[in-house]
Amino acid sequence: MERLDQQLRFITEIDLLKAVLRQTMLTAPARRENSAEHSWHLAVMALTLADHAPPGTDIGRVTAMLLLHDLVEIDAGDLFAYADAAQQSRQEQAERAAADRIFALLPPDQAASFRGLWDEFEERRTPEARFARGLDRLQPMLANLKAGGGTWLEHGITADQVLTKVQLIEDGSPSLGRYARDLVDRAVRDGLLAPPRANS
Amino acid sequence: MERLDQQLRFITEIDLLKAVLRQTMLTAPARRENSAEHSWHLAVMALTLADHAPPGTDIGRVTAMLLLHDLVEIDAGDLFAYADAAQQSRQEQAERAAADRIFALLPPDQAASFRGLWDEFEERRTPEARFARGLDRLQPMLANLKAGGGTWLEHGITADQVLTKVQLIEDGSPSLGRYARDLVDRAVRDGLLAPPRANS
Q1: Residue B28 Rama label (left phi>0; alpha psi -120 to 50; beta)
Q2: How far is Cα B112 from Cα A91, in angstroms, rounded to an integer?
Q3: Tell me: the pLDDT tens digits for A154-199?
Q4: What is the pTM of this model?
Q5: Which of B48, B69, B145 to substitute to test the interface with A, most A CBs within 10 Å?
Q6: Inter-chain contact A10–B48, Cβ cutoff 8 Å?
Q7: How far is CA B25 from CA A8, A68, B40, B140, B153, in A?
Q8: Phi and psi (nearest 5°) for A172?
């Protein structure tokens, strides 16, 4: 039963992702979202929006990536999407160390396969990874719209900052990218997002 | 974009699953688990424990079922696993009404396919559904062990009550069923669970 013991140790350890809080605010009740429920939401988005992925995309692989992509935050914590370059670089280092520790709880073959999915997500080279990363960018936009501005207003985020994230959505799915661009326009019109700096 | 509007309405609506609290207590921080993070945990369990499913089981289908199985609790709430038969029957009715409403937010073809996965999980006739249901029973056992008794001690649950749930785990996976039986023995020895009534 040693293999199963290792698997269940991993399963018990990852409970901690429910305690990692993100910037995103939920509306009912108003509290910060945690990374476990965020990962669930993304995986359901992958199932629901599968027809917006490029033809031939393996949605099972996308879902698996999304379920695992934030596990490193158990050690590294969540970093706000608009953090500066120095913070992002420290975060990347911390996340790699976390991946080394957490996936190693599993039997070696599974450790390698889960780590492979995590690396694939980070490297954004496959259609699956690009679609998964796009969903990861779209979900907080939907939350901010629902929350009447959310972290956009809280941190004074401008439309051009959000548009750099929309580019990632477009890379994963042209149709979701177009939709996200419309959302940004609507958010600027509704005063939920500061207009692009170039126009202000 | 009408199809995508419907899909995103569903995705926005299901945010509410993050507000549905279960009986299960988390340990760090000590608070009740919500159904969204529970669903995430189950989906990762399906990926991790795939080699304990009967040969030929479609794990992608298991994962999809687990991601969707609790959505009905947005309307129906969560019912404690050891509720009485009358409560269970009222719950089933409420959950069917919830499934009618929530899946109908989607485009008709997707509404039918997601509802089909939910029905399959409930009916427990396929190997995929039986494996998924088994994981849904195993996860709270792991949480109670981690919490030093959790809902078992809180509600005075006896080993024979838990063993009726272990039967469901065994139906989905003989090896996980054996493991769960060992967990019950250990919990009784450690005083986390009242001994079987027949022996007391």
Answers
A1: beta
A2: 42
A3: 999 999 999 999 999 999 999 999 999 999 999 999 999 988 876 4
A4: 0.95
A5: B48
A6: yes
A7: 18, 23, 16, 9, 12
A8: -90, -30
